[in-house]
Amino acid sequence: MRKILISALALLSAYGCGPKPSSPAAPAYLIYVTNERSGDVSIIDPETRREVGRMAIGKRPRGLVISPDKRFLYVAVSGSPIGGPGVDESALPPPDKAADGIVVINLASRQVVKTLRGVSDPEQIAISPDGERLYVASEDSGKLLVISRGGEILSEIAVGGEPEGLSVSPKGDTILATSEEEHTVSILRGQPLAAVARVEVGARPRNAVFVNDTKAVVPGENDASLSVVDLAAAKRLRTIALPKSDRPMGVVKWDDHTILVTTGRGGRLVRVDLDASGESVVASAAVGPRPWGLAVSPDRKLAVTANGSSNDITLVDPVTFKVLGHIAVGKGPWGVAAG
Fold first, then answer.
1. 105 in a domain, yes or no?
2. pLDDT digits (tens, 9 = 90+) for 157-184
3. From edge to edge, which strands make up the β-sheet containing 258-262?
4. Least C-beta-crowded within 10 Å: which of 175, 214, 267, 290?
């Protein structure tokens, strides 16, 4: 009887009727990287540490944000030519305004659903906790745009020349918008949303992060500073000086007392103790040339930097600050999100 059973199982297996091996489990999350110079988004599996997809989406993709329900990825694309410090902008070609917009990607199908138009030269994006409103920094207009999920522009608010960094409070009642040109951060509240204060910070602020409901940190790229801002009093509490070789750009809250910061030309990721009376940098990892974008994985086991000059990302253990590996992506990686 046993021989008959074994023979039957072998026959079933030979004709593909036997038990099939289970498919590999899908990763708990993915990493998305905007590649400014190649005009695409890289999709990374953090478990296999491989690029598992790449989507061409338009010119100069930079800022990106994942919707709270994890269904959509919003990416800012711009037809303005690449400039920056030291570049003679009068010699650049004219901007292609038809290329400006916010690309909406369905993460399940990895397909572009639509592109939201009507925003000029968008650079960074933030989203409300309920996913109903997008906040977009329009770099060449000097405005913060509030856009509905469906694409309707709800309001336009002046926040200073060359706005870039955006951050939304956990409750969604306060928005921060930095001005590279005027070295300020605007604090916006209310319905309708309005700027209630503007605080002077470091030189060329390109990001901001909430530490709690009443305190934020704003990196100053050009003077290697971190400005700690009291949001209730609308004033700078203190300035943390990093080494002059650093160019702080990306910033993420780690806990109520520390933040993670990418240092651009400094080539490293650092952890900064905001309450330290002495040395504020308590951990550092060399990650590669010009790390800008920064994200922490949902399980808090990885910090990811986008390294613009080496066309790769770096994975770092955010507790030990050990570099875990590098993954090649497209050209000019700029922003990164994990979810």
1. yes
2. 999 999 999 999 999 999 999 999 999 9
3. 251-253, 258-262, 268-273, 281-286
4. 214
Strand duo 281-286 + 323-328: pairing: unpaired
Query: Looking at this protein, which amino acid is placed at residue 52?
Result: V
- What is the residue whose two structure tokens read 């409103």? 133
Question: Greatest CA separation found in the chain?
Answer: 88
Query: Based on the domain organization, do 287 and 304 belong to the same domain?
Result: yes
Question: What are the tens digits of pLDDT across the range 3-34?
Answer: 444 444 444 444 445 455 556 678 899 999 99
d(CA 123, CA 213): 25
In a domain, 14, yes or no: no
Question: For all residues of the chain together, what is the average pLDDT?
Answer: 93
Range of the domain at 321: 245-333
Residue 6 falls inside a structural domain: no
Neighbours of 235 (CB within 10 A): 11
Q: Which residues contact 6 (CB under 8 A, 6 or more apart)?
A: none
